[in-house]
Amino acid sequence: MATKPRPELRERIDALLDSFIKDFYQTVPYAQHQRDAAEINLDYYKRHNIETILRLRRKRTIDALAIKYFTKVDPVQAKAWAHYTDDEMLHDRLFAADLAKAGVTKEEIYSTEPLLATKLLTGYLQYGMEFEDSPLALITSVYFVEYTTTRTQPEWLDNLEKVLGPDEVKGARAHVNTDLDDDHDDFVWRVLTSLVTTEEDERTVERHLHHIFWLWKLYFVELHQRTVLGAKDEQIPLPTATDA
Q1: Whole-model pTM?
Q2: Which of 6, 53, 176, 201 is a good FRET partner for 111, with 20 to 30 A between their CA atoms?
């Protein structure tokens, strides 16, 4: 595989993701909280990390479906994705270790019912595997996460470390450092472009990105409503879709 395939497509996709990050900070309530706040809302912080763990646990199953797909059509990619999945497989333990320092037990984490937005996001990815027989939605989502994580989370963790202390974010820091040190966004991009062979595939990737961003906005809106405003399920509003 080429080191950086399809540079013109990547430039267009990365610009779209940069616009999503800008939109996120401008339109989602509490979006700048963990990055900028001098005092952290611990209910918000704890639930966000719990949802991260629950999302990682469910993604393992979808990654296994992607490996199964690649074993049938591209064993080289099957091996590559299996290695990546192995690298990420137990990262929920890193976040659980941080939560333990904040007084959240493993029993509390794993008995928590995921937010509706978490179910919708993981369901969207599993739908692609189960009903479209394609890992394109999953790999697109992983690129979305790897790109936006490396461009937002270091700032969030710098602030959280300043407010809560370095030991309290050690796990999350290790997770982000793995992404940065191993150039995960470059790796995922190479896998993604192996699935993109036509202009229609390119349009599908962009469509997936818009859907995934919408679901992530929904997640942060629901998180804010639940933990900061104390809203119930039926009181959670929909996020405003971006103009695109």
Answers
A1: 0.91
A2: 176
